[in-house]
Design brief:
The chain is of the alpha/beta class and about 300 residues long. Helix content is about 40%, strand content about 15%. It has ten helices and eight strands. It has helices spanning about 30-45, 60-70, 90-100, 105-115, 130-140, 160-170, 180-190, 205-220, 250-260, 285-300; strands at about 15-20, 50, 75, 120-125, 145-150, 175-180, 230-235, 265-270. Helix 1 packs parallel to helix 10, helix 7 (about 180-190) crosses helix 8 (about 205-220) and helix 8 runs parallel beside helix 9 (about 250-260).
Length: about 300
Amino acid sequence: MPKRKQIKRHRSQVPLLLSTDIAGIFALNPQLFYQLMQTLDADCCHIDGVEFIPFRFSQHRAHLALDKLNIPIIGIHGPIAWDTPDKSLLEKIYTTPFSGVMSSIKTTLNLTAKIKPRYLLFHEPDLDQCCFTQQLTSYLKQESTPIILLENVYRPNSLQISVNKTKRLLNQTQAGIMIDLVHLLREVMEVFNCFSNYHRQLNPDNIDQYWLKMLVAMDEALDQIPAAGLHIPLGSNRDSLPWELLKEKHWRQLAKLFDKHQNRLIALTLENQHLETVFSMNKKQFPAIIKDKKKKIETLLSTGVL
């Protein structure tokens, strides 16, 4: 079968990354992740590397596989922020297992020192924890450290909080924000409960309003900081974007915003929210995942987002 002709990326100077989240917590089939990367790279557009999520049970094996397959790790995703003051006791109980599958801050910093990625990402509430802040401050005293990016989460005003904390970090190191589009969409919709499926509150009549509010919030945040990355969830669960409601005009609006802030962007990261790959991706799921990814990436390419 002949190789499909790639669509030229609109912003090829900004690294395009694929998150390793789709490999799953146990990442039992790293060769499938490699096959996914190779297929998307050949059939859609060039992918520069990955944002590596070091899960506690697979980070060593996954890192070795990426190294062996010569896949660049350009960013590292730190532990999940779960014990935030705004969460109810029930939410904390629900999210505790998720924090347990992630590597500790100590392991993440040691891994970062070894890999030397371009950026290291944390969720903004992490900086509210004294133990975390002490370890990060000590780490930043080293001679060479990556850009620290703070990601907005499901809580009120999280994007501006991320900006404010980034400004303080700039006194110690290079820093910026990682804007997660779903997290921000939920913020402007005021849907913060982790049990809520925000998709159910969206429809053709209100998507324009919320999308515009999201873009305005992004624009205001990007005007305040020197560097930023974007998380673009390509998956199919409730933590992904509402793809069925988003039209060409919405993507072109986003692309226009990216054009304005082109010089601030250091990474566009494709996340992969799929319930069926939580533990590990397998061959049975693979054809449907490939089809889904290609369709969405081609949309982002044709509208100038990527």
